[in-house]
Structures are given as C-alpha cells and as structure tokens.
Amino acid sequence: MKTLNSLLSKAQWLESEDIRPYVFVRPENKIAHPGTRHKLDWFIHSPIYKDPLDIPEVNFADRIYSLEERAFGPSNMAMPRWVFYDCAVMPGFVAGFAARPSALKKEVRELLDPVKYPASGSPILNSSRAHSFVAKFLDDLDWVPLSLFIIIPTMHRGEWVAHNLCSVNSLVAKEHQFYGLGFLSKAFGLWYANVEQCSGMTQWGSPALKLHSHFGHLEVVGAYAPVHSHAKTITYRAQVNTTCWEQFFSREMDLAFLENFGPSGMQIDPKDEQSMIDLQKRIENDEGPFYLSAMEIAAKKLDESLTIYKPKGN
C-alpha cells in the first residue's frame, strides 16, 4: 500500500479505505491518461467513477446538490439543477472525495442524510415511475460525496475553468472536519485532468480566495464583473504549479513569487468598489499583467486591502 506524503500528516483520512476520490463523469469525458502531467504522490487510492447519465446515480448527484445548495444558498449563489447538468457534467466533470456511509461519524452522517436534507427540486422525488430509484436512507448509498469540485474545459487548449468548490467542512463543527478537504478536492481534480492553466471566479473578500490563490501564481484577468450577478468578482487564472500546493500546507515563503513580482503601487480594498473598477480599467488598457500574492492573502484578514503585483521589469 502507498504511504501518505508527510506534508499531509494532518490529513490522515486520506489513508482510509473508506474514503476515496471520485470522478462524476460521463464516459466520453474521462481523461485518457489521468495524473500524468503533475508529478504528485498525494492520492493513495484510485478514484471511484460514477456516470451522471445513469438514473440510479441521481442519489449521488442529489447529495452533491444538497451540499452545494447549503454552502452557497445563503449568498444566493446556489446552482440550478439544469446548470449542473447542461454546463458542468455534460462538458466537464465533478471531482471530490466520497465516503462509505457506515464509516462516518454520527455528526457527519446526520448532515448528509437524504431524509433530513433532501436536494431541493429533485424531480425524481415526485415521479411515480422513477421513484423506485430513490435512496430512502443514507446507507442505501454505496458512497456519499463529502466534497465537490466542478471543472470545465475551455476552447483555449490546456485551460479549464474551476466553476464550483465546496465541502462538508463548511457545515460541520471543527472537531468533525476533514483536514484540507476543500483544497485537496481541487488539487485532485487538477491533477487528475492534467490541467495546465486554471481559471476561475470568486468574490473579493471571500475566504475562498485564500484557497484558490495557492494553486499557481494568481493573475487577475478581471477585477470587476458587472456581467456576473455579483459585480465585485475577481476573475483569475493561474499556471498550475504543485510547488504552490505544497506551500499551502508547509506555509513556506514563495521565494519564486518574491523574485519575479513586485508591488505595482495599486491596491484592492474588498470594501471599496471603486478600487476594483480602477484596476479593471487598467486591465482593459493592457497595462498588466497584474497578480496577487498568496502569502499576503493568507496573512491578512478578509476585509483588508491587498497589494496588486506586476512582473519585475514589466
């Protein structure tokens, strides 16, 4: 059996035979040679594959929906079912970690229970013909998702969009959380799909920025997004770099960032919409590229201003 990388010593759950990475993907979208671009020994167990087009897998999907809507519902950003199907699992896939229900603590089982937390709007619950496929109890499932990371390929070769990420950690008390689950879910998806460049969106001042900034040096390609339902959104991209992943856990300084980037003289204040618009205008005027420092984001409070960096000599 493979042994756990010492960097992940606090994530002992990765060693369990009862917790495995999963890939929720239609057969045509499976990666031909998964995990061959980024040399990494973090993921001990082979993934579980589930096909979103198979009717019985609606139970697995509904557990994903239930997690997602409780994580993003309070911010009015829960994902409609048709968006998940049309825009996520048809062109891309969902990755994360799943557990055997019998192996979970009572507190976690309760939060994943399909009776107590059914997925809103699940059409199969009201179907007289398909109702027999519905899992009535948590233990009717072979595996239950603990996290989800949706990633979608783009027309730009090698670039994927990180659409959504959340985990059960946002719902349970700290003593019942799975260390690093959200970060490791995104890391697994990027590793599995051999992603070269990852783009994504999150909101200024969001705790998610502390996580997303550690997958590669984060370029700000959009500082303000009125086309989005939340205009105070950062659109980012990063060349995937597993050295940055290691620094998320080791907390070591990113010397490569310090060597190659310096302050631009601009800052983003998450409380000041004008600062976002000002940076966006500079991006549109081709004055960039502009970057954020993962070290600075990790060290600061969510509402503190962030330095905008540029490549040295640019």
Count the E strands: 12
Helical content stands at 25-40%
Biggest pleated-sheet summary: 10 strands, mixed
Low-confidence stretches: none
User: How many structural domains?
Assistant: 2
Per DSSP, the total helix count is: 9
Q: What integer is the average pLDDT?
A: 93
The geometry reads as: globular
In percent, how much strand structure appears in the residues? 15-25%
Series of secondary-structure elements, N-terminal to C-terminal: EEHHEHEEEHEHEEHHEHEHE
First CA to last CA: what distance? 49 Å
Protein structure class: alpha+beta
**What is the radius of gyration?**
20 Å
Summary?
26% of the residues lie in helices and 22% in strands. It is α+β, with helices and mostly antiparallel strands and 314 residues long. It folds into two domains: 1-195, no CATH class; 200-314, no CATH class.
